[in-house]
């Protein structure tokens, strides 16, 4: 969707406390699914011009939506739609994570336990329809290598799909909160096509092993993929003990050139 598309805001606002009305317009579009998780919002200036309000009004409306967990900051200048299902549960989870001081290192360890086993089970239980869905996701990733917010959403979607294909509801329930925490991390971290290209290579290797039904090798490639995520994080000079559940912290914007050199 073009940020200059005049249909993004469909009515001009001329009311007291316009930020509430603007927030409600955007909230309805998010909850209805019209604006998808990971979709980038236009700039404050574009929204202000289309709605006929000041940038301060837009800023207040976006702040309201961010506090409600409907949008989140992907970079210093970019807001994207966040996952809006089970908002109250997600907010409670984030609060627990803050109290327990969950770090990137903790998140990596959890992924290292869950994702290889989910991949092994998925490999044993997928059907042809599942494999087609995985291929479609990878095709979409290929088209979005330079659209980091959308690619991050697709990356999270792929791992969620593999978890669902395990057909193990207990493990799926255990993995879902990790995904809720991981996606904002990806938005802040994935700022280089070198990272998306490297990760997509792993995704293709995982799919290849799933297609041949080699569950042991599929799990091992997933394990390497999870470890490669940590290696890229450390090579970028980021602290593995960084708390990751506090959405109020400044975005982690890593210069693309620096990331490219680290890989």
Give the secondary structure arrangement, pairings included.
Elements: H1 18-31, H2 44-51, H3 55-67, E1 71-75, E2 78-81, H4 87-100, H5 104-125, H6 128-143, H7 148-165, H8 169-189, H9 193-211, H10 215-235, H11 256-262
Antiparallel strand pairs: 1-2
What is the total tally of β strands? Answer: 2
User: Can you tell me the CATH class of the largest domain?
Assistant: Mainly Alpha
The main pleated sheet reads as: 2 strands, antiparallel
Strand content: under 5%
Provide key terms for this protein:
263 residues, mainly alpha, Arc Repressor Mutant, subunit A, 2 domains, two-stranded antiparallel ribbon, 11 helices
């Amino acid at each position: 969707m073009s940020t200059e598309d005049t249909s993004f805001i469909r009515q001009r606002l001329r009311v007291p406390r316009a930020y509430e009305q603007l927030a409600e317009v955007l909230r309805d579009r998010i909850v209805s699914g019209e604006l998808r998780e990971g979709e980038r919002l236009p700039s404050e200036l574009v929204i202000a011009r289309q709605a006929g309000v000041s940038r301060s009004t837009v800023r207040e409306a976006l702040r309201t939506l961010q506090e409600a967990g409907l949008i989140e900051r992907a970079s210093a200048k970019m807001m994207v739609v966040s996952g809006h299902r089970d908002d109250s549960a997600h907010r409670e989870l984030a609060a627990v994570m803050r109290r327990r001081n969950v770090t990137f290192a903790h998140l990596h360890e959890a992924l290292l336990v869950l994702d290889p086993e989910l991949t092994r089970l998925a490999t044993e239980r997928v059907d042809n329809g599942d494999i087609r869905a995985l291929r479609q996701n990878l095709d979409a990733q290929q088209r979005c290598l330079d659209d980091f917010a959308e690619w991050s959403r697709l990356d999270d979607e792929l791992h969620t799909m593999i978890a669902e294909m395990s057909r193990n509801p207990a493990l799926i329930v255990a993995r879902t909160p990790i995904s809720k925490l991981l996606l904002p991390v990806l938005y802040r971290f994935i700022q280089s096509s070198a990272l998306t290209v490297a990760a997509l290579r792993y995704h293709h290797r995982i799919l290849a092993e799933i297609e041949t039904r080699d569950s042991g090798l599929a799990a091992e490639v997933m394990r390497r993929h999870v470890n490669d995520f940590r290696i890229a994080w450390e090579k970028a000079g980021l602290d593995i003990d960084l708390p990751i559940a506090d959405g109020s912290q400044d975005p982690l914007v890593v210069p693309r050139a620096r990331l490219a050199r680290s890989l």
